[in-house]
Amino acid sequence: MKLTTALTTLMALGLATGAGAEIRLGASLSASGGAAFLGDPEAKTLEMLVEEVNAAGGINGEEIVLTLYDDGGDPNKARTFATRLVEDDEVVAIIGGTTTGTTMSVLSVAEDEGIPFISLAGAIQIIDPVRDYVFKTPHTDRMACEKIFTDMQTRGISKIGMIAGTDGFGASMEAQCKDVAGDHGIEILVAETYAPQDADMTPQLTKIKATEGVQAVLNPGFGQGPAIVTRNYAQIGLDLPLYQSHGVASDGFIELTGVEAAEGVRLPGTALLIADILEDGDAQKPVVMAYKTAYEAKYGEAVSTFGGYAHDAFRLMVDAIARAGSDDPDEIRDALEETRDLVGTTGIYSFSADDHLGLNLSAFRMLEIRDGAWTSID
Question: Which superfamily does CATH assign the domain made up of 2-140+286-363 to?
């Protein structure tokens, strides 16, 4: 399925005025399917921001044409759309890859074709090892593990149980958490898994509950799985701190889980989730509030962390194109890598030749759900 902005539609019909220059951007997002709760706000965010930039005169006077495909979370479709974006739509840069699986498909095309690509997915393998044309905006799963384990350390927690999804993100974060646990004095006493389609994780949680010495539970995962885990957790009376990943950092997770079951869940998240309680001196507050206000006014729904990833990717790309003064993919790539101190909703980005994420742990906020809302516990 192909989605277009109103501007793109007009040009396709031959109704756009003049022969002015344009900058062609592409996107492949999971706006439908199982990852739609991630991809839908990402798609809406990109379309909104394209409208805003074009209304303000475009990039160096050139209008943006966004061609956006809905891959439905299917890596094969994502690869097909990425190829189409490059060969048929002639884009100079790509934003997207809602999930780790679709990202890996898109990045293979971007690398082969020499097209700068900013991913919206979390797995560390997207940018480690560094690839010439691939960047990303969300914190890595490894960073999420480190933020969670740091919080556990401060609370005297050293022995935990883990239950992880077997999807690409869940499996990657599980592996990363196991790899860094010892560095933080964390011992994983029991580790269980569940498949993306599973509807009941009670057996796995019962096993964790029966494991002597467990002080807290960590659930690497995204999608509906963590919500089911959280509900089952409450149902069996597992009275231990529950930590989730940044893969469920949205109001939608609370709604899907239920306010009562979600109470007390902790996870690393972004400033966007606590926009209304950020201090006035917080460097991210103006950016966060501007995005939140515009998005909610346009779409009548709450912003999400995931839309924020798209917001930051777009800001990074527009900034790079403006500084490059060109729509040449190699020059855009070079300008991206030279980005310094760009303030986004997820953090403050500074890329380098060795770092195509540009964030550190300070960009994460440790959050807890209390009375159906997010609060900071840093």
Answer: Response regulator (3.40.50.2300)
